[in-house]
Amino acid sequence: MNKRIRLGMVGGGQGGFIGAVHRIAARLDDRYELVAGSFSSNPERGDASAAELHVAPERSYANFTEMAEKEAAREDSIEAVSIVTPNHLHYEPTLAFLKAGIHVICDKPVTTTLAEAKALQKAIADSGRLFVLTHNYTGYPMVRQMRAMVQDGLLGKLRHVHVEYAQDWLSQAVEKQGAKGAEWRTDPARAGSGGAIGDIGTHAYNIATFVTGETPSSLLADLSSFVEGRVLDDSANILLRYENGAKGMLWASQVAVGNENHLALRIYGDKGGLEWNHERVNELRYTSYGKPMQTLTRNGSGALAASTRVSRVPSGHPEGYLEGFATIYREAANAIIAARTGAYPDAAVIYPSIKDGIEGLAFIEAAIRSSRNGAVWTEIER
Amino acid sequence: MNKRIRLGMVGGGQGGFIGAVHRIAARLDDRYELVAGSFSSNPERGDASAAELHVAPERSYANFTEMAEKEAAREDSIEAVSIVTPNHLHYEPTLAFLKAGIHVICDKPVTTTLAEAKALQKAIADSGRLFVLTHNYTGYPMVRQMRAMVQDGLLGKLRHVHVEYAQDWLSQAVEKQGAKGAEWRTDPARAGSGGAIGDIGTHAYNIATFVTGETPSSLLADLSSFVEGRVLDDSANILLRYENGAKGMLWASQVAVGNENHLALRIYGDKGGLEWNHERVNELRYTSYGKPMQTLTRNGSGALAASTRVSRVPSGHPEGYLEGFATIYREAANAIIAARTGAYPDAAVIYPSIKDGIEGLAFIEAAIRSSRNGAVWTEIER
Amino acid sequence: MNKRIRLGMVGGGQGGFIGAVHRIAARLDDRYELVAGSFSSNPERGDASAAELHVAPERSYANFTEMAEKEAAREDSIEAVSIVTPNHLHYEPTLAFLKAGIHVICDKPVTTTLAEAKALQKAIADSGRLFVLTHNYTGYPMVRQMRAMVQDGLLGKLRHVHVEYAQDWLSQAVEKQGAKGAEWRTDPARAGSGGAIGDIGTHAYNIATFVTGETPSSLLADLSSFVEGRVLDDSANILLRYENGAKGMLWASQVAVGNENHLALRIYGDKGGLEWNHERVNELRYTSYGKPMQTLTRNGSGALAASTRVSRVPSGHPEGYLEGFATIYREAANAIIAARTGAYPDAAVIYPSIKDGIEGLAFIEAAIRSSRNGAVWTEIER
Amino acid sequence: MNKRIRLGMVGGGQGGFIGAVHRIAARLDDRYELVAGSFSSNPERGDASAAELHVAPERSYANFTEMAEKEAAREDSIEAVSIVTPNHLHYEPTLAFLKAGIHVICDKPVTTTLAEAKALQKAIADSGRLFVLTHNYTGYPMVRQMRAMVQDGLLGKLRHVHVEYAQDWLSQAVEKQGAKGAEWRTDPARAGSGGAIGDIGTHAYNIATFVTGETPSSLLADLSSFVEGRVLDDSANILLRYENGAKGMLWASQVAVGNENHLALRIYGDKGGLEWNHERVNELRYTSYGKPMQTLTRNGSGALAASTRVSRVPSGHPEGYLEGFATIYREAANAIIAARTGAYPDAAVIYPSIKDGIEGLAFIEAAIRSSRNGAVWTEIER
């Protein structure tokens, strides 16, 4: 009765990083069973991957089209599929599986253009299937905690939103030296028109949006390609303006030497302030105006239900990246189970959806437009 | 060919914490498949747990004796079993499964007395089966890194070993207020003769031993039971002396208000110093005498093979408790696979064994003996 | 022969904060002797202050005009004067003392308009006297260290400049509740046209300029007055562009709840990165591309002469705000001693001058101009 | 009327470190005027030092005996003297100045033996003069804050006292390589019978005693001399037992590579816990049982009068070592002023006295006795 969800995967063959992460995320809470896949555009590599992953040979498909069709025809069809291909290969497979009546869990960004994302939104609505976008950082318990604290009014009226995501692995032209992942991320044909802004800027933007519950109405973006010969941006300095008067700063860089994977969010309202960063992922600093700063911890004193329900081990025992990612899968499972009976999932269940995907692409496109026009104020068109 | 290892479990029924951790750890790297269990002394709860865990009803056993016998008789018998019962229920099941020719993965401490641990050592040798003790903190990549750095001579001749493990969840008599886990841990009949020293002191001792590669010859322990009515120690102040002249201090406390799960190791030799703590589990501070302090990170620059081979995600993406625990299971899997053909596992494979279990009990018993005699210097008898 | 420098002070009477800071700074290294002053516009309070400060009654003056005249006429005239009045009262006294042949040490910002600052520059040149602006954060040893490291090329070609100065003491309308210092700082008549941007934004801008050795050519500023009824800005989100292609982000806020006095600078070039913040004022994090992050400490291993020569106690013994401020006075003393003989001070001597004052006002005025025009790119006119 | 206190100094000639620190400390709050001294056993160096320090030639004395006599005879005699010579030269000068009716401010440890300290106690009582011991770390605002919080009962009944003071500058035999300060500190003839334990262990012990208000009744000390050829201890592992049932651990080391000047205190009672360390000297971490950890800051929210009255700059502006040292001088000045009229100083005034000196030597002697007897429990005889 409490059967695992049968899951397929597109992409994620041998040697890839993000596919392995999705699989661990799916496995961690034991809610899924990987039973089918089209793991690689290279059929041999695809089959070898399937064998390694305990997927039956007959369910190792040459391409996603065949997979969607054949799976849909099986009685024990997959119920959901994870799409973990590079950015430009999200759109078509998603359409195919939705049409086949299969829920889709898709890596971010959802597509390479806003127009595609909107087309997808329509297709999702028409299909009646679930679409889950793995903006994994929203799965961190302390990020959930921040969101709940904002919703509870602990910060009052928002004034400042500061978010940054800095890395240093693209500080040199490693894409020309065969670096894994750097090649397609710096190639407009495969990554889309955004470089750092698409790869990590969207994460920063998404987490700020998720926590504050607000989306900016306009932005001003000064994108740079510091490394010689690089076409796409490798960093972005961005100002944000919100309807309600709050203002923001967003920084994304993949050339900030000394930053391995620095994601940080700080928000301040007239009643309080919150600070969180990836280096201390299980903690949160909260100051109520005029009182001493508190350090709130995952599952510690002061933890709200919104964070404890997505936490697995007691306070003081660190959780990390894989657990946060797994929470997206866990929430997706909750929603899929509910969908079996046509029910809505429990109100507490939260997962990033096509709405987040559209918001992310609206952000990327507005930023690129702003920067190309000389870094001017630009409306975020959704 | 690359089949998952068939795993059974003793203990870990609904509501328990550590059983769930073992299962996630076994699942994370997809090397095991849970197919049998005796999950609870209460048969109904055991069967309900089995159902939840996708274990076939006929392989949900009423007790470990039946389980060992019946599994041994199956063609698709479990190859390994996880024993996750309270301390006093490790010894008998371990013996039973070894006799049945099944590898054992056992929660720590291995037994409640040194004598039992020694008896087990003999039984293990006789059985030719593997015995893996889940001293999970040795699975952290940065703990592996420290060990490798010591072995590489970066610290020179060791002088100071400082290790501490502090919590605060037993600051009051929560064992009388129905607190999960507090009851049996403070009960000599179930926990053995050590309280904090057995529960967390052994972890501290084990990590120091693992990293330094040295075991102290004698210790002096001043144990306390600060909370009124508590029989077992809830904290321990300990001095250590090593053969090679190094000296140590070990502190374990479950009544140190403000410490959620503070495990920290600092070691200093004549050439360098290393500092690590649980709050920043993915980092390590290393100082070579006369040079600036370096922060080494998991998978970052300066990471040695000893740590990268047990790491799953890139630097800057936090790993945590579950990943460390999973590494013990991954290493056990490596050893089990090798054992299928009678081969030794790769030299890089490391897992805590009965030797660590004996060392831990020798430590506990010496500490209790020392404290009862007025906190005097006491040889650690192994 | 090694006589203390005779010093006067304008402003800084009883109850003021910054005057007391200047006096401690002057005293710390025993290079000055306070012998005259016009401490308050209220003569009684001025005389009472003089008495407390061991200043002879006949050298307690009613106003700076009288003070400049009478001191100039004495054989034991003051050699230098500290001007510690609110911003709008810097210009006239400075002119008066320069004319009287007396060196001037002046609190920042130098004036309330760029035009005045430029007029002052001419007057300084004409007078042949020294003018020292107390941009005290440039006195911190680790800030000097960063500057020297940039000059030594350790960062390579600069890409990112991130500087921020956040406080929270103006989060509410405390200027209407009698808060010390808040009244004049939020009053355009006394503070000038900049609020947070003048009070702390200039510090942030100055430290970035000091360390990088670069000044931006243009900026874009989005200033806000979040607190109802406040006329001047209480926060500023600013983008910077440098001639050499580097780009920057500057944030100043006095309404960021939880920030007591957070000043932080991070700079990244193609070879390395540096991070420093006020909370750990005696440390610096330095990463050379591809190597582990190092923590450099004041007077510790790796400290350059540029920082050790302005440090007073061994590494590990914290220095702070007053020591940094005192270094400005120490450097001024070095320059004044050299000036006695018409010599240039030693090349190592560094102090903020009218050039920094002009740069600061150019920054403030450009920021206000930019913001008023809708937060558009604006040339910094000097 | 508010005249500065006339101060003399014994020791502290050119090139010395601690003498300069005492002078800055005396100067910082402008309560003293240095007017006499016997700065060096070498008369020429003494006179040169005097000239540099603006001390009149006739008040530069060849030795402390002459100084005490001649100063006592002057109408404008010094009112207090600072004794900053090596440890073995504290006793005789103190006696001489007390006899001359002059208050004494003396560097720690007060003497090299407990017997001398007790003799001094009698002499002080007989003299009616003040004796201030510069245990400077008790001058830190956050240390004062901790003490007040303990007194206010916020920690409840004390259980754990953990204090440590670790340095690394004696990790090698630098005393044989001409290192300043290392020579006399490692020489029993000049330092007394304690090495690290006397130099820094007493600071650790003193701060723990100051904060908790409790002195241990017994200790057990395992001293080591890790560096070859070193006679005195360079590190000490110590257990403490208090009358009231609390227990402690004290670690002092001058060979812990990577520790520049790490002083840390952690105390835990049944109601709360406090943690403080030198690296973040302006902060304090406080946890009330069951509540989130708070970070209390100097002059920040939650700061008690006990800390704000010895603080000079607003919260967020770091104070450091010199300020803490200056507070000892400020408190001494308060006491000296009160003594002029025979009054007691205000109840809030706190300074370390001969009682602290005796306690410190009782600690050192008990520790050495314990260690020599094989590291056994030893009563602290006072």
Topology:
Four copies of one chain form a homotetramer.
Chain A: E1 5-10, H1 18-28, E2 32-38, H2 43-52, H3 64-73, E3 80-83, H4 91-99, E4 103-106, H5 114-127, E5 131-133, H6 141-151, E6 158-166, H7 182-185, H8 188-191, H9 196-212, E7 216-224, E8 235-242, E9 247-253, E10 262-269, E11 272-277, E12 283-288, E13 293-297, H10 305-308, H11 321-340, H12 354-372, E14 378-379
Parallel strand pairs in A: 1-2, 1-3, 3-4, 4-5, 6-9
Antiparallel strand pairs in A: 6-10, 7-8, 7-14, 8-9, 10-11, 11-12, 12-13
Helix pairs in contact in A: 1-11, 3-4, 4-5, 5-12, 6-9, 9-12
Query: If classified by CATH, what would the architecture of the largest domain in chain A be?
Result: 2-Layer Sandwich
Largest interface: A-C, 45 and 46 residues
Oligomer: homotetramer
CATH topology of the largest domain in chain A: Dihydrodipicolinate Reductase, domain 2
In the CATH scheme, the class of the largest domain in chain A would be Alpha Beta
Q: What is the number of E strands of chain A?
A: 14
Structural class assignment of chain A: alpha/beta
How many domains of chain A? The number is 2
Q: Rg of chain A from C-alpha positions?
A: 21 Å
Helix fraction of chain A?
25-40%
- What share of residues are in beta strands of chain A? 15-25%
Order of helices and strands of chain A: EHEHHEHEHEHEHHHEEEEEEEHHHE
The strand order across the widest sheet of chain A is 13-12-11-10-6-9-8-7-14
Number of helices of chain A: 12
Overall outline of chain A = globular
- Give the uncertain stretches of chain A in residue-range form: none
